[in-house]
Every structure is written in C-alpha cells, then in structure tokens.
Amino acid sequence: MSEQAGLKVMVVDDHPMWRDAVARDLAEAGFDVVATAGDGLQAVRRAQAAAPDVLVLDLNLPELPGVRVCKELVGANPALRVLVLSASGEHADVLEAVKSGATGYLLKSASTEELLDAVRRTAVGDPVFTPGLAGLVLGEYRRLATEPAPAAPDEPGAPQLTDRETEVLRLVAKGLSYKQIAERLVISHRTVQNHVQNTLGKLQLHNRVELVRYAIERGLDDA
Questions:
Q1: Which terminus of the chain has fewer Cβ atoms in its 10 Å neighbourhood, N or C?
Q2: Fold of the 158-218 domain
Q3: Which GO terms of type biological process are on file (predicted)?
Q4: H or E element: which one contains 177?
Q5: Which alpha helices (DSSP H) does the chain contain, by range?
Q6: Domain residue ranges in the chain
C-alpha cells in the first residue's frame, strides 16, 4: 500500500458508471482520488484546482477532446503524469496522445490489476503501454528524430552530461522502463529518475518524448 499512499489521482471519463468504477477501484487500492470529471473543459478546471499527480484520461470527451486536455494540462504543469485509458487501440490515437504529453496508454480491456499497476508506474514516469503499442511508440520516436529539432542543446557552452547520465539516456532511447534501467545498472529506481530529471534540465528538454528524440538523433539507441 505504501507505493500509492498519498498519490493523488484524477479520473476523467464521460461515462458515469465507468468513471465511478475506476475511481472506486483506485480508492480501494489506496490511491487518493482527488477529483473526477465528465467532459474536457470540466477536466481542465478541476485538474488545475485539485493538482493530481496522475490523470487517468479518456480520449473521447465532450466539450474538449482528451488530447487537448492532456496538452493543456501537461503544458502548464510538466510534472503531471497522464495515463490514457481508452477503448481505441488505433495507432493514430495512440501517437496523438503521446505527442500531446501522455506518459502511457492503456486499453479499457485491461484488468483492474493492470490498471492499478499502470497508475503506479505512470506516477514515477515509466512509459506504460498496452502490449503491442510500445513498439509503435518507439517507432514514432525514431520518425520524429528525422525531423529538425526545435532546439540545439549541444551547442558550444551547453552543459555536458556525465558518463552515468549518458548511459541512462542511451537505455531510455532503447525503450527500457526506469525499473529495467535500474536493474541493468544495479542502481535504485529513484537514482534513475534523478539522472533523467538532471538530464532534462541540462538539455533544456521538457519530457521523455523530447529526451528520446534527442538521444535517437545522436545515435545513442544504436550504441
């Protein structure tokens, strides 16, 4: 129970029975469900007031689409983690959600246990995807890496990464979760998180999507 104690979660879905069931399952598992919402505009207002750590978000919402909700809230608060919980497994929906700032994407066919685990992992920044979607997302990272980058953080005078930060970045680019990186390098999960946050700060990047793109552009995923 200690993993989720005090972890604030908000559930957004336009179907009341589904929304209430998910909120109940999370509360019973020990999460602090701070708010729920049934449409996009309501979601933005309530999330800004309730300040959840994790937003469990449906994409198909009235008033404001889920991807817009995600983009707006993550843009205002990059520390917010968003787990999309959707009935759609369409590739375009998955990629749009990731590009809007979602940390993970889970289909509604997932079990309660899978949902609870996904929320826990999303909270610490691990990318969580329904099996079969992770490869799709990594492929999109690679595609993005062929496009011009919005910034050039490795210009002369830019902060240099330590050997350990570079090592962690290389494994992030290969698609490993923070837990897998911790096991590979025999360090704690928290240490991996710290290295990633330090790297984001040094390179003036905002999220994991930009970080992976940066790494792939420099060929670190093949190293």
A1: N
A2: Arc Repressor Mutant, subunit A (1.10.10)
A3: phosphorelay signal transduction system; regulation of DNA-templated transcription
A4: none
A5: 16-28, 40-50, 66-76, 91-99, 112-123, 134-145, 163-173, 178-185, 189-203, 208-217
A6: 8-134, 158-218
